[in-house]
């Protein structure tokens, strides 16, 4: 009887944690820290832990052009998986039209944010001299062309430019 009660308690706790994570909004990197970090010496010397002391890494990590609000649970599942388009079925996250393929390590974002992701990737590629694979470059180009910036993305870019002092030209050239 104690084992059953313990199992139910563990199951209930896991369910409550999932609900908590689903209702928590975080500010997260569009291009995962591993993607820009691995190009730095500090990452090669010990990964993210070693980069915590690195000024260049911390500047890139705090770049507002690469930060967006994200649901904790979705972001945790996204991990550092590559962006992709692989399904038309979205049943993992309720009303959130995103999908994660854990086996193939890929993440499909909702249509509403694909253009934002593309322009962020191009910005990070340009600013940090990061190479995108041919497949990622083609996907980001398609998303950039298919999903133009909306009024909010253009306004957000202006606000970040005022705060941070630099532009994301990949948004600017489509907003003007």
Give structural notes.
This protein is mainly alpha-helical and 176 residues long. It contains ten helices and five strands. It has helices spanning 2-22, 33-37, 41-44, 47-51, 55-61, 72-78, 111-128, 134-146, 151-164, 169-175, and strands at residues 25-29, 67-71, 82-83, 99-101, 106-108. It has a three-stranded mixed β-sheet with strand order 3-5-4, with no helix packed on it. Strands 1-2 form a two-stranded antiparallel ribbon. A hairpin with a 4-residue loop joins strand 4 (99-101) and strand 5 (106-108). The longest helix is centred in the first third of the chain and has 21 residues, at 2-22. The chain is globular and about 40 Å long.
- Average pLDDT confidence is 88
Percent of sequence in beta strands: 5-15%
**What order do the strands of the largest sheet run in, or round the barrel if closed?**
3-5-4
Largest sheet composition: 3 strands, mixed
Shape: globular
Strand tally is 5
Order of helices and strands: HEHHHHEHEEEHHHH
Distance linking N and C termini: 68 Å
Number of helices: 10
Q: Which stretches of 5+ consecutive residues score pLDDT under 50?
A: 2-16
Cα radius of gyration in angstroms:
18 Å
